[in-house]
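your task:
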Amino acid sequence: ALTLAEAGLDVILLERGGTAKALPTFSKSLPANYAEAGIRTTTGTAFALPGGEALGGSTTVNSAICFRTPPRTLDRWNDLCDGAFEDTGHYEQVLDDVEAVMHVGDTPDALLSGNDRAQKRAAQKLGWPEGNLRRNTPHCTGCHRCNLVCPVGGKSSVDKEILPRAAAAGARIWARCSVNHVQTGLVTGRTASGTLTVRAERVVLCAGSIANPTLLLNSGIDDGEIGRGLHVHPVASVIGMHPDPVWSPGSSQGHWTEPLPELEILFESNPIMPGAFWQQMPLYGSESKRVMSRMSQIVSTGVMLRDTSTGRVKASTGSAQIRYDLNKHD
């Protein structure tokens, strides 16, 4: 939208969500800022598949991690799309431009949380490749609340860096507009005050790997491939109890290590937020209370896999219908 508007084209951007709101707890933030109130899940191998739903999308609620596309991934993309990414120099320039607009930089050591530092010490002791994550958080204060919408405006999310420039260039932005049908040159949707119809020479879908195929299939557009081939890079969280307190404020996720590059498994330090993961713990009653009292000693990392499994998104007018089965290799 920004690029086209600044090139002088007439642009209308439709967004299902509203303005992202920084709220104090997960119970309040999830329904306000996440798709399906943060409980969107898969069938088959069942797990949560959260995503932002607001002006700025998931950039308002993610941990602001900005990994550049690895060369081996570009090679795969080239194989899939007949060399569309062969001009790697141009692709890298595009990434440079995006990083400049979004103010991406390495997480400073001073903003590493206690959990980040624990993983960094461990990786260095083991001799594993490691580093501070690159993030689009130029004004981060280390409050550890990226996933609830930054309360201090420290994150350069799309609603702060992209959309205002697009609007200044003439783009019209409709929030809380739920698109329900798309076809060549025509989009229809619902707003709080009624229905909306947009006629356009070009329609571009930027709603992500779940909403894009859902909308196309709901619109009767199906070539047999739409909705297939979904990858989700599953994450298994590993949680440990350190003998001493390690908690200190800092970035939500500030450190990575890759002990097995050939297997394409990446460790990203997790945000230590009870509201996000406590319900996954097999703890009850007095045992749960005992462990909770030692929260300052908990360390955690997310083990992220480049999956060979694939899923499928189907048509749906309610909750997203996502089937995903983790294969034996993964």
Notes: The CA atoms of residues 212 and 279 lie 30 Å apart. The chain has a mean pLDDT of 93. The longest strand covers residues 298-305.
